[in-house]
Amino acid sequence: MKTTLLRSAAMLMLLGGAVAHAQDYPTKTITMVVPFAAGGPTDTVARLVAQSMSAKLKQTIIVENVGGAGGTIGAARVAKAAPDGYTVLLHHIGHSTAPALYRKLTYNAIDSFEPVGLVTDVPMTLVARKDFPAKDFKEFLAYVKANKAKVTYANAGIGSASHLCGMLFMTAIATDLTTVPYKGTGPAMNDLLGGQVDFMCDQTTNTTSQIKGGKIKAYGVTTKARLPNMPDLPTLNEAGLPNFEVAVWHGLYAPKGTPKPVIDALSGALQVALKDPAVKQRFADLGTEPVAEARAKPEALRAHLKSEIDRWGPIIAKAGAYAD
Ligand code: MLT
C-alpha cells in the first residue's frame, strides 16, 4: 500500500512539475528550426515571424537552419526534440509532399508533430539568369524545349517547393530537364545571379528584390491574379501555361506531446506576430500576406496538412517522382 501511495505521490509531483512548467512557458530561449539553408524564402519567413513572436513571448527565439533532403532532415530534427516548446519547426508545403516522395521518413508528418498554426501562402515566380535568351514566357518555353539537353534548373532538393513547382512545370510542358539541387534556394539564387544555373521556380519572398533590381529575369507568377507588388509580371496562366497555380503555404509545428498550454502560448504569439504591422508590411513588400487569424491556429493547420497530404500523394505518384 505504502509503495503505491509513494508512487502516486511521485507521479503527482511529476505531473505537477510538467503543468507548472507549461504554465510558466517560456522560461528560456526557443529554437525555431528552418529545414532549408539560410537566406532562402523559408528562412526569410521564419526570421520575420520569430522576431515578432519573440517580443510577444518575451523570450529569445533563435532560427537554426537544418537543410538537406528537401526539408526532411530539419523536420526529423524537430520530430525527435523534447516536447517542451523549446524546439519548433517552421516548414512549408514540402511537409505535405514528403510522405509521398520519401519512402524512408524517420517521422510521420502528422503524428510526430503538434500543429501550432498556418503562417502565410507565398506565390512562386518562374525566374532565369539575367542573360537568358528569352524576352517573354513564349520565347522561354521555345528555348527550353529546343535546348532541353543543356538547360539546367535549380531547386532546394526533392520535396522542396521549388522542386514541386519544377516537377509540375516539366509535366505541363512534357519535357524533362536537368535539375541542380541545393540545400535551399538562397544558395541557388547565388548561382542564378552568377549565371551558373539557367532558371528556377522560386518564391517571391526570395525573388522579388532580384526581379525588381533587374538582376534576374522573371517570366511569370504562379497565382490566379497578378501580384500588387509586381503588376507588370504576367501570371503563367495568361503567359501561356493554363491553370498553373502553386502557392507555398507555411506552418509552425512543435513535437508531438508538447503540452496544450505551450501550444496555446505559441499559437497566441503567432497570431499576434501575423497582425504585427512590420510583419504585414514586409510580407506585402515580398508579394505575400499573413493568413487570417482563424488559420493561425492548431486545428486549421491540422486540417490543412491532412488535406494537402491527401491532395499531393496521387499527383506525385502520377509524376513518378520520389526519393529514397
Ligand atoms: C523551397 O524551394 O522549398 C524553398 O525555396 C527552400 C528554401 O526556403 O530555401
Keywords:
alpha/beta, D-Maltodextrin-Binding Protein, domain 2, 9-stranded mixed β-sheet, binds D-malate
* Distance between the first and last residues' Cα: 54 Å
Total DSSP helices: 12
CATH architectural category of the largest domain: 3-Layer(aba) Sandwich
Structural class: alpha/beta
The CATH superfamily of the largest domain is identified as: Bordetella uptake gene, domain 1
Describe this structure in words.
The chain has 324 residues and is α/β, with parallel strands linked by helices. It has two domains: 191 residues, D-Maltodextrin-Binding Protein, domain 2, CATH 3.40.190.150; 117 residues, 3-Layer(aba) Sandwich (D-Maltodextrin-Binding Protein, domain 2), CATH 3.40.190. Helices cover 46% and strands 19% of the residues. It is built from twelve helices and nine strands. Strands 1, 2, 3, 4, 5, 6, 7, 8 and 9 form a nine-stranded mixed β-sheet that branches. Helix 2 links the parallel strand 1 and strand 2. Helix 4 packs across helix 12. The radius of gyration is 21 Å and the shape is elongated. The mean pLDDT is 94.
